[in-house]
Amino acid sequence: MSKKEIISALVDRYQDDVIHVSDTVWGFAEAGMKEYKTAEFYTKFFEEKGFKVEVGMADMPTAFVASWGEGTPIVGFLGEFDALPLLSQEAACPVKTPIVEGAYGHGCGHNCLGAGAAGAALALRDYLKENNLPGTVRFYGTPGEEYGSGKIYMARAGLFNDLDVCLTWHPSATNNVWATSSLANISVMFTFTGVTAHAAGNPHLGRSALDACELMNVGVNYLREHIIPEARVHYAYVNAGGIAPNVVHDKATIHYFIRAPKMSQAQEIYARVQDIAEGAAKMTGTTHVVDLKEAIYDYLPNITLSKVMEKAMNEIGAPEFDEADYALAREFRKTFNEGNLASVKSNLAGLSLDTDLIGDDEVLHTRILPYKPLNKAMSGSTDVGDASYCAPTAQCGVATEVLGTPGHSWQITAMSGSSIAHKGTMVAAKVLALTAVMAMEDEEMLKAAKEELKKSTGGQYVSAMPAHIKPNIG
Ligand SMILES: [Zn+2]
Questions:
Q1: Cα 110 to averaged position of ligand 1 atoms, centre (Å)
Q2: How far apart are CA 474 and CA 470, in angstroms?
Q3: For the domain that residue 242 is a member of, what is the CATH number?
């Protein structure tokens, strides 16, 4: 039997488990950093499978590490499991039908993400055990990808530092190894404090916190012209002071996201945004405090390891769907708008790939896109970034969704509980497990992957989150 056949058979052994994990977590649909039922379920699951589980890592009650084996190489699989607000939806139902109006739903497919990574961890354990091979298998239960960014605290605590290989995947509409990075993101709030007064009677006695926010924003708007074009600075008024125009508002808060291709670039812009806040406070006679919420590194794909994943992915092959899946996929497709459908082509173009690689009439992706490493960032951010600075990391997308599905949508919640997602999740487990085995058995590659990491990071990872800032689990 080829390695691919051995690994496929080992993952197939756990098919019922993988689907059970995915569907159970789908049903929990818990908010980021509050995945209590999910973490408890996973803990029990891994303990029953003979893993040692440590819970409550890096000051987060729902962060855990399940491990098996000893010695090197050490392989870590990252598993996410948080859901999104307002995306409750019946499983496999192509008509918008919330189970509970306004509730959370798995609109980013993280139920599949964790289940696929868990399947890979179990298969790799069996492979090492049955072949009497040294090595450690870890499954990282990483909470709050959507809200709270658990991995940045797990990285800060050094939990990824000893990994030889770090692997993960994301439910997707296409099958491909991630060839681009993501944007670093600094999330920060500025709260201004002034003096309240009657806006008509004694305005000269008032000092407006709202004015400070407005002036700060004017400053940041002017700043945008003079920062690198790839950077993004967006804002929201968290507290605009109040609803009464006849009161001088003494408290106001504005929230910024500062994104750039590299953390160092985001930090440089952040320093300038802080200067602007100081200027706004001076102009208005107010004081201000800076509340850094999160600082997420850009994703650093390890090209050496990604090439191994590409090979594994091509050997395993894309998911194969049946007639019922295609029929369901066509129903979902009817709910997409033109822009969603056009995104299939624009995503290909964004990866510098031929836009004909996916035909207009294709509803499910059943091939594998070529892997072409690119020196550019996709527009979003992910906390896999911090892990990728600690250890050689590779990540892929596997089709669990219909081509053209809008991101973070009720359609994804529905599909993530369907047989389409079950098939994709099993393929993801196989790709991750085979990548791990191929990597562990290639000492030269492991060395080269580490050297590549060292070269691109300049050595040690330094968290962008100061030590005194605790995870936001509230
Ligand atoms: Zn996601």
A1: 6
A2: 11
A3: 3.30.70.360
Residue 109 CA to ligand 1 centre (angstroms): 7
pLDDT in tens, 65-98: 999 999 999 999 999 999 999 999 999 999 999 9
462 C-alpha vs ligand 1 centroid, how far in Å? 24
Statement to judge: residues 73 and 114 lie in one domain: yes
Statement to judge: residues 303 and 292 lie in one domain: no
Q: How far does the centroid of ligand 1 lie from the alpha carbon of residue 420, in Å?
A: 17
Q: How far apart are CA 208 and CA 212, in angstroms?
A: 7
**In a 10 Å sphere around its CB, with 0-12 CB exposed, 13-18 middle and 19+ buried, how is residue 331 labelled?**
middle
| 251 CA to centre of ligand 1 in angstroms | 35
Same-domain status, 157 and 222 = no
Please state the pTM of the whole predicted model: 0.95
Distance 349 CA to ligand 1 centre (A): 22
Please check whether residues 218 and 72 belong to one and the same domain: no
DSSP state, residue 369: P
CA 108 to centroid of ligand 1, rounded, Å? 5
**The domain containing residue 233 runs over which residues?**
184-296
- DSSP letter for 356, please: G
Residue 266 alpha carbon to ligand 1 centre in Å = 22
CA distances, 299 to each of 154, 221, 267, 323, 367 (Å) = 15, 27, 16, 37, 25
User: Cα 167 vs. chain centroid, distance in angstroms?
Assistant: 13
Distance 304 CA to ligand 1 centre (A): 24
What is the model's pLDDT at position 460?
Answer: 85
